[in-house]
Write a structure and sequence with these properties.
The protein has about 300 residues and is an all-alpha fold. The protein has one domain. Helices cover about 75% and strands about 0% of the residues. It has helices at about 10-35, 40-60, 70-90, 100-105, 110-120, 125-140, 150-155, 155-180, 185-205, 215-245, 245-255, 255-270, 275-295. The model has no long low-confidence stretch (mean pLDDT about 85).
């Protein structure tokens, strides 16, 4: 696969698109989740996304030849992790403040760093351990472990958000292996193709019914925005990494936290909690140290 010439402006432009897409996903998921079950949302997101990817493949220079793969097992592993992460994420988005959800999502690289020595052959160093410890302290701040109301505030939403981060970590490890041989559209093709039946099976097992169609035009709008936002976030983030190193892109990604905190405050009357912002900053610093260590 061709390597693009590094460009900070282009990396920043693509990351701006990713930040917008992630914010759209959060708001859309919360609004649609008021009406539809999480499995139903994921099913329609995959169906709509699959149609969009087919159009993109048809219009691309390599066309449908790029979806040929000898790594279907790795695609399946990636999407099992991603589906679990997405399920937890969209379940939690209706239960906890948006800033807290995003901060806990940032713990995914912690889990990657913990399991990378086993699956990617990376060395586990004292610096890496210190970075993980710093990030874990940030997690404790985010969930309010040092507050007087921790027992009453900590619940199923926070548990699902942290479980989602583990699923996203599996996704990250598999994606890291896949990007060496697969195009972005190829990865997105199998993302949408494999996750639709996963969501369908969950919906059938939970409700014994086919996923419901969005019951009104407003909900349909949010489901469509959710689907487009999800694909756009994946695509923009991948493009940003093509134009900038991880040490450049990672700090830009952290702007998701203050951005979503402002959105939560403006639209949902969620307070700007100092422990979430401070804990998120510590998680980011730990992740950034690991990123620089990996690039050294």
């Amino acid at each position: 696969m061709a390597t693009e010439t590094p460009s900070l402006p282009k990396a920043a432009m693509w990351m701006a698109g990713a930040l917008t897409a992630f914010t759209t996903m959060a708001v859309s998921g919360r609004e649609a989740g008021r009406v539809m079950a999480t499995s139903d949302l994921l099913f329609w997101r995959s169906i709509i996304g699959f149609l969009i990817v087919l159009v993109a493949l048809r219009a691309s220079l390599k066309g449908f030849t790029q979806i040929r793969t000898r790594r279907i097992g790795l695609h399946l592993l990636r999407n099992c992790g991603h589906f679990f992460g997405q399920y937890g994420w969209y379940f939690a988005v209706t239960l906890i403040p948006l800033a807290q959800l995003f901060a806990l999502e940032f713990t995914s690289p912690i889990w990657v760093a913990l399991v990378a020595p086993l699956f990617l052959g990376e060395r586990f160093t004292a610096t890496g351990f210190g970075a993980i410890a710093l990030s874990f302290f940030g997690v404790l701040l985010v969930v309010g472990a040092f507050g007087e109301t921790f027992r009453s505030d900590f619940g199923i939403g926070q548990i699902w958000a942290m479980a989602a981060a583990v699923g996203f970590a599996v996704n990250m490890i598999a994606t890291k292996r896949l990007t060496g041989t697969e195009t972005t559209l190829c990865i997105l093709f199998y993302l949408t193709l494999l996750q639709a039946p996963m969501a369908l099976s969950v919906s059938l097992s939970q409700n014994a019914t086919f996923p419901i169609i969005p019951p009104d035009s407003v909900t349909a709008f949010w489901v469509l925005a959710l689907s487009i936002g999800g694909l756009a976030a994946h695509f923009c983030m991948t493009q940003a990494f093509r134009y900038g190193d991880a040490t450049v892109v990672a700090p830009m990604d952290f702007f998701r936290l203050p951005l979503i905190a402002l959105v939560g405050m403006a639209f949902y009357n969620e307070p700007l909690a100092w422990n979430v912002l401070m804990g998120g900053a510590l998680i980011f610093v730990g992740n950034y140290i690991n990123t620089r260590r990996a690039r050294a």
